[in-house]
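Following up on my earlier thread - several people asked me to post the actual chain instead of describing it. Fair enough. Here it is, all 271 residues.
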Amino acid sequence: MNLLHWTVRPAWTLHVHCACRDLAGSWDVWCKYRAEHGGRAWMPKILIADDDPHIRSVIRFALARDGLAAIEAADGAAALELVARERPDLLILDVMMPEMDGTELCRRLRRESDVPVIFLSSRGEELDRVLGLELGGDDYMTKPFSPRELVARVRAHLRRREGRVTDGPRAAGPLRRGPLRLDADRFEARWGEAPIPLTVTEFRLLQAMATHSGRVFTREMLMGAAHAEPRIVSDRTIDSHVRHLRAKLAALGAAPIETVHGLGYRYRDEG
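Reply from S.P.:
Thanks for posting it. Predicted structure:
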């Protein structure tokens, strides 16, 4: 087999080489994935939406090497159609795309879906990252980025979405706190009979606080609860997630999250 070669943008060139041994490695990953999932032929499906075909190729290759299937869209409108038709397990969205940008696409998705969203952008200012998270994104990476790190973040979000716990025992059944019901296995949140459309990060934050009702959580503790891997973020990022979470609860007439000034937040049971 001839060697394949991809180049990503003159400003940050990335060479990806694929030979026969790479295909063998991908097959080994696939077999390992099937063994870990009881022989099922299902693979997580990732939607890559970016108007740069070279970037899509590099991401697709990196995902395939880790046993993840990928579908692609060159603009936001096409991505929205693919989401409705293909039901991907996670989205990687470029912020600046034609037809519909990534933030607008995420905002529309959040009306009815909690699928994890990772933003990619050349704009790495704190305000841009906070805006992406406030609009419903679960993660934000700036270009140039490491494909290996991107795949690691994809895997981390998929693990959290599936409700797997790698460092401790699973919770015994759904968590109930008055009208609140959280089912980590099904990734479902309800207030009374009404569903709460949460992102993965919002679900983890609410789960952590509700599990230890009355306990004060600092922003650092909340970030640790939301992300399995170490992450350096600003206090504003956590505040943004909590503000979005509060707004969704307030829409159902609920206000169980209190601010403890100078410390952080805590969950207060409501009858």
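The two ends are 66 Å apart (CA to CA). That should answer part of your original question.
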